[in-house]
Amino acid sequence: MSAAYEPRPPLLRVSAVSKHYAAPVLRDIDLDVHAGEVLALTGENGAGKSTLSKILCGLETATSGSMTLAGTLYAPDSRSSAEALGVRMVLQELSMVPTLTVAENLFLGDWVSWIALRCAFGPNRRLRAWAWTSTPGRPYTRSASATGR
User: Fold this and answer.
1) Among 6, 25, 40, 83, whose CB has the most other CB atoms within 10 angstroms?
2) pTM to 2 decimal places
3) 70 φ, ψ (degrees, to nearest 5)
4) pLDDT digits (tens, 9 = 90+) for 1-23
């Protein structure tokens, strides 16, 4: 007899999150994100994709509802507090530096990580096979498989 399947708890759970300005923008949004998942928010203009993303990364505050990250109440009050816990939003940027890699562009505003990347790979090496894992309390940790060892 095999062991019963036990679903893993979500890394990020959004429960009944709403946002109101002059009118409701988001209504009772529920979302579970598990470790290792890659998700995309899609929808028509005005559907609330940007608003939800901003709430998740600390740029906006939800009017109601709650969020948990790794089982702990999560309510970032700024972008930096969300990033300190490993939550980062990749914005649709039209002003990327075309001569840099995706990873280098992502860390342009974070000079500590930028310098660490440049020191680790040298000024002329491209960031290939680089994987980032982000766990609460230890953001931006290099995975062993990406080191080539």
Assistant:
1) 83
2) 0.64
3) 55, 40
4) 566 766 788 999 999 999 999 99
